[in-house]
Every structure is written in C-alpha cells, then in structure tokens.
Amino acid sequence: FTSPAPQMPMPGYNGVNSFQGNPYQPSYLQQTGRGAPMPSSSNPMSFNSQPQVHRVSQLDVQRAMYEELQQQQNSAQSQQQDRWQQGRPSMTSFPDMRSTTSDLRLHQPPSNQIPGLDMDKERLKAQADELQGVVDRQTLEIRRRNEELLELQRNHEAFREKFILFREGVRSKTDETDARCRKLEAQLRASKDELANRRAQLEEGRSENGFHRLDGLRSVVRDLERKADALSTEKKDLEAKLASIRSGNQSDIQNEIHAKETMISDFRTRVEKQAEFIRFQTAKVAELEQHLEQLREAPEPSSLQSESDYRERELEAAISHNARSLEMQKSKIADLRSILEDERRKAEQLRESVREAEEQRNSLQRDFDSKFEQLESLKMEQQQKALQLSIAKRNVQDLQIMLQDTNARKSGHDLQQTLHESQIELSAEKSKFDTLNAELLDRKRVIQQLESKVRQVNLDLEHQQQASDHESQVLQTYCSALEMELQALHQQHRETQQQIGNYEGNMKSYYDLQISESKRHEKQLEDEKDQLNKAVMVVERDIEIMKSSLRQKQEMMSSQHSADGARMMDRIQQAGRSADDMDRQIMNMRQEVSDLEARFQQQCAIAGGGAAGGGAAGGGAAG
C-alpha cells in the first residue's frame, strides 16, 4: 500500500493524521477537549491572512484514542454484565445455541480446539499494524508537505509584494521619463521657433537696413564725388569724429569676436562631453548585453528561495541602473537649460549690438545729410564764383581790346596806369582761381577718405553677418544633438519596456510550471486515493470472509460442541467487538479519504485562483 513520495507538497493538508483525527472537522478531540475546530471561513492559502493551523501532537492523539477505546470497552462490559445479571437468555436470543450459558461453561472446549481463529486474529493484527504504519508514514509525509506548502506560500507572498512594488516603481519612473521627454521636446520646439524668429529678424534687418542704407550711402558718395565744395573748415572735426567711431566699432567687434571664440570653445567642450557620454552609454549597453548572456548561460537555481533571491538581486540591479541613468539625464537636462539661458543672453547681447550699429548708421546718415546740404550750398557759391570768373574774363578780354584800341590811338601815362591796374586785377583773379582749385583737390581727398571709411564699415557689416551665420550653424548642430539625445532616451525607454515584458513572460511561465506541477501532484494523490480505496476494499473483503468463517465455525462448534457455548460466546463476542473496531477504523479511513478529497479540491481551487491572479497581475504590468 505504499507509494513513492511526491516532489511537491500536497495542498490542503494541515500535517495532522486524519486516522487519529482531523482538527478541521474534529470527531473525538471535541469530546476529549484536546482540540478546537477551525472556522470554515478560514483559508490557509489566502494571501491576505496567515493560515490558522491547529497542530496536535501524535502522542496526544494516541492517548485520546486509547482513552476512547477504554471507555468503549468499559461500556460494553457493563452492558454485558447487566444483560447477564437480568437472567438467563431465552433460546430465541440465540437460535443457534441449544443450551444456556451455564451449561456451555461446563462443557467449554479449550481455545486450541477452534481451528484458524488465532491465525485470523494474528493476520488481522498484522494487517492493522501494516495499515497503522502506512497511516503513520502518510502522516509524516503530509506534515512535511504542509510545512513545504506553508514555506512556499510565504515565499510566494513576499515575492508577490516585491513584484508589486517593483511594478509600481517602474511605472512611476516610466511616467517621469515620459514627462521629461515631453518637456525636452517642448524646449526643443521653443528653441527652434526662437532660432527661426531670430533668423527672420536678421534677414529682415539685412534686407531693409543693410542694403537700402548701403545704396543710400553709395548714392551719397557718388553725389559727394560730383559735389566738391567747401569742406576744409570741418575737415579736422569730421576726421576726429570718424576716428572715434572707427575705434569704437573696432573695440566692439573685437569683444564680439572674443565672445564668439569662447562660445565656440564651450560648444566644442560640450560636444566632447556628449561624445564621451555616448561612449559611456554604449559601454554600459555592451556590459548589460554581456550580463544578459551570462544570465542566459548560467544554470537556474535549484530551490525556490534561491530563485527568488536571484530575481530580487536582478531587479535591484535594474532599478539602481535606471536610477543612475535618470540622475545622469537630470544633470544633462540642467546643463542643457543653462546652455539655453546662455544662448538667450547672447542673443539679447547681439540684438543690443545690432541696435547700436543701427544707431551709429543713423547718426552717420544724418551727418552725411547735413554735409550734403552744405555741399549744395557750396555748389551754389561755386557756380556764382564761376559766373563771376567768366564775367571777369570777359572784362579782361574787353579791357585788352580797349587797350589795343587805345594803344593804336594814343599812348600816354594814364593808359599805362590803367593797364597796370588791370594786370593786378587779373593776377588777383588768377590767385583766387588757384586757391579754388586747391580747395577742390582737398575736397576730393576728403571724399576718398570717406569712401575708404564706408568700405571699412561694409567690411565690418559682412564680418557681423558671417558671425551670425556661424552662430546659426552652431545652434542648428546643438538642436540636432538635442534631437539625438531625445532619440537615445526613447530607445532606453523602449529597452526598459522590453525588459519588463521579458520579466512578465518569465513570471507567467513560472506560474504555468507551478500549475502543471500542482496538476501532476493532484494526479499522484488521486492514484494514492485509489490505492487506499483498493486497500480498504481488500480489508473489507477479508473482514467479510472472516465474519463468514466465524459464523460457519460458530455453527459447527454449536452443532458439535453445544456444551462449550459460553466460552465460544465470549470469543465470538470478542471477535465481533474486534470486527466492530475494524469497521469503525474503516469508516474513519473512509471519512479521512473524503475529507482529504474535499480539502484537496478546495486548495486546488484556491491555488488556481492565486495563479490566475498572478497571471492577471503580469498581464496588467505588460499592459
């Protein structure tokens, strides 16, 4: 009747021998006061309450069983004595007997004359001992399985709590990462919009203020080339003013160039840092892949405790890695914010410099307008002087003609004097004309200097335009670096989601394995139950055979030895009592089998519900 011990614990057993008593459905422990029933609403496999198992030692159970048997024997003896004291039984009480008990006592044969009775008793006793040994072994096995089941339940509850905490932590970290990604995307869009607005403003300023004003300046210069008048009086003041303006522009340009060089060096260092961070991330990814390969190649732990510890360490390592990566991303976001603030300040400084350059251009234009008005006035004066010069030339010619006429008619002292005076006037007019030519040459030189200064201003504007273009290119590279970083964050988020999905798949396979193991042990228990039922049927058949043999022997002995009826009656009563005891034991065994079957079905239903809950939790995490 023995069977190999299964590997997994049998759910539903509480570690108490059901032959000696069942603390969940007590029979005699309630009568003796040695045990208390367990409430029917208690669930030993519940994850929210601890199992309330009433443990009863084997010695107390045996003592209670012995006391119950003693009470039954005493009650049976007292009933028998009362029955014999009431009087002799009639012949109808014992139809097979032909004499009274007193007569049978006189002719009672010895006990060794009943063939096969002692052998049957010994065989029954051996079977009872064998059944008792089987029951004891089953009791020990049930206790061991119950302890293993409780340990497994505690481990499963702890692992379930850790998994719930890990899932909530990963969900919160995922939400924080998504929020940060959205924030970075919003900042990137804002920086792109600001860059586009700035570029549009630069283009607009370049198109409206630069080219139009340069054309105006060139037209003014061309007008100045045509209009050479009296500028010698303000030559020194204008040169001093232009020198001061030029020196101020050079200092501003040098400062701006120095600021641009520092910004370029900062961007280079940041690019190097980003490259170093990318190399660090790739090394980390390679290390994680190598660790995953080692985990795949490593053998799985033998016990459930070691497996849970192993998974716990793996989860802690993953959580710490995610925390470190989030801290690095946080510091990187702070650096990016500081970079954006610096760029905004630099943009404001550039706007201020552009406004100052526009103000300087406006002041130059006003100066050129005033000079143009002065040139117009000088031109009018020059025309008047040219008209006077032509009039003077005509007068000189007229005077020469008159002199020639007068020389032909008369020669005298007055004519010579007038001729000398006219020559003096002509020399004076000639000197005036020479001075005017010198002034014109000086004005041409001033105009050439102004043209060179205008060309220098144009070169400065071109340098500023090139610097702004370079800055826009740097901002574009910075935006592309931000986009690459966002893509890396999205990739890391997807890898984390994939790891969570793999872990949930492993948990689902683990629960499926546990369910298959429970089904296999259920089948083993059903086989053992069938074997016990077969053993009980064999014992019942043997008891029936013994009863029939005893009845036959009783009839034979009553017919052959009617005088030995009293002793035979005692032995028959003892055999009947032993048969009744065996019947009670068989009924107890049947009750035990039915209780075990009901408890096993209940625990299977609870275990199936727990596994379904675990699968639902895994599905929720995957969702």
Automatic annotation (TrEMBL):
Residues 1-117 are annotated as: Disordered. Residues 15-33, 87-114 have a biased composition (Polar residues). Transmembrane segments: none annotated. Residues 37-52, 70-86 have a biased composition (Low complexity). Keywords: Coiled coil. Residues 121-241, 326-409, 447-542, 572-599 form a coiled coil. This is Uncharacterized protein. The lineage of its organism: Eukaryota, Cryptophyceae, Pyrenomonadales, Geminigeraceae, Guillardia.
